[in-house]
């Protein structure tokens, strides 16, 4: 077993982490609709969506933040103990073929002896290819002091 | 075009709404890992997960709340204007083959003339087949006064 | 548990029901090919399909009617007992990015005491964004007299 | 380009064709629910389905026949011109992990000069691993006289 996730002691308040970017395609939206059961016409009906303020289908907000959570999940591969809490404010739409990435900043760290680790709070922004913030919020995770051996 | 989503005036503070239940399968987790990029071993490595506190792979927290968001998306099919904000507190794991549903309560409503609609805030709980709360939080959505004709 | 499917007594001959519309994407076709095993070049090979009468890849007929069956499945969420019979006549192709919906009309109802419900026969048309009928046929379903409590 | 689909003149009334068998898994059902939008609890909610006559989740009828149609699609790879018509009678449920196959018999053939091909009508049965018929019906397809060169 080999995981490179960061341990609790490796996070310091003020640390910044930037995810890879990914292009959000029509396929992501189709798959996410099927998984979540969310076939709202803003996401699945181009005829309808063309008449709405965003002029075309947009990604589900939860798809966008799921991609962001994937970055955190991989940052903590092998060291995450549990995902505790998250808050998201949706600021702008993600349209088909937008390319997004996540910027995290460590906002708080708090040791928790019982779990041999501690809580890390990340402030989070998801931005598109023009640098516009599409989502902002935070996520709080319980992280182990050690990597699995 | 025919959408049955509820309009803004149809929501009253205190209204309760209960989603259908769905069984969370290994397939959901595999598909969600692929979509989100979150291959954290808590979700994808049974050998690893067996040694962790939850004794087996668990669903991604974001998968669980995505299913909940699907209920809101369909509740507002044709009437949602935008998803504004959400907060989630993860209280207990969702294990493979757990059957979950969402309970919503309308916590606030606030008309917004500019959008010919208003903001609805739902308090939310996701529960499993034993009635245990696995996630609690809220979601805030901009909803139209009218259904599309 | 909360299902809003219609019960048998709620269907009357002549009732009309119209589904939401959905845009059929390349992703749907790719996924359906994988699920059905139908990689016929009319659906999966753009070079081949460009030389055929429809000038480009078309959706599998069974994908189109599966989407229609999804509407019936949700109309009877919690009240369907069994899907009995269906007939489909494919009238026109569904091309990538066409937006389709289903129109049902209750053609017959017949109580069946043994199942505490009855048989509902729907005449069905699937139409595209120009109002052209792409499929017509019928579907027959055994529906319960009661919603699950 | 190389396709081995059968041409119209290669079909004779009375010909029998048997598909490979395939095991229908939970994953097929999860994916088909997402594609079709059919989250009926007979297919997606194990708690609900356990209380129903079939004692557990069953495959969507349209998933079963989509797999059968995949066999026809591949039988006519490069030679199918259009899928014309189909009828299905659902005789017994397909449960998770059942292994199904399709048996076709050529019932009619009719040349159509305009398309340089003809119509083939197949009578069809889908059977499970115990030899029980789960679906019967027919499918009618326009087939070319020639293979693409």
The tally of strands of chain A reads: 6
Instruction: Write down the CATH topology of chain A.
Output: Thiol Ester Dehydrase, Chain A
- The rounded distance between the terminal residues' Cα atoms of chain A is 7 Å
Order of helices and strands of chain A: EEHHHHEEEE
Per CATH, the architecture of chain A is Roll
Report the principal-axis shape of chain A. elongated
Could you say how many structural domains of chain A there are in total?
Answer: 1
Using a beta-carbon cutoff below 8 angstroms, give the protein chain pair with the largest interface and the number of residues from each chain.
A-B, 50 and 49 residues
Question: Quick check: average pLDDT of chain A?
Answer: 96
Largest sheet of chain A: 6 strands, antiparallel
- Runs of chain A in which pLDDT lies below 50 for 5 or more consecutive residues are none
Proportion of strand residues of chain A? 35-45%
Secondary-structure-derived class of chain A: alpha+beta
Q: What's the multimeric state?
A: homotetramer
CATH hierarchy class name of chain A? Alpha Beta
Rg of chain A, alpha carbons = 17 Å
CATH homology group of chain A: Hotdog Thioesterase
Q: Helical content of chain A, roughly? A: 10-25%
| Total helical segments of chain A | 4
């Amino acid at each position: 077993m080999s995981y490179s996730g960061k341990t609790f002691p490796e996070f310091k308040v003020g640390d910044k982490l930037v995810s890879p970017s990914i292009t959000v395609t029509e396929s992501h939206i189709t798959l996410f609709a099927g998984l979540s059961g969310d076939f709202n016409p803003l996401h699945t009906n181009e005829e309808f969506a063309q008449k709405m303020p965003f002029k075309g289908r947009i990604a589900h907000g939860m798809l966008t933040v799921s991609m962001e959570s994937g970055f955190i999940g991989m940052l903590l591969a092998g060291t995450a103990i549990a995902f505790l809490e998250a808050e998201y404010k949706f600021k702008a739409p993600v349209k088909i073929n937008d390319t997004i990435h996540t910027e995290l900043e460590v906002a708080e760290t708090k040791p928790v002896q019982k779990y041999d680790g501690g809580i890390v709070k990340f402030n989070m922004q998801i931005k598109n290819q023009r640098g516009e913030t599409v989502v902002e919020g935070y996520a709080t995770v319980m992280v182990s002091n050690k990597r699995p051996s």
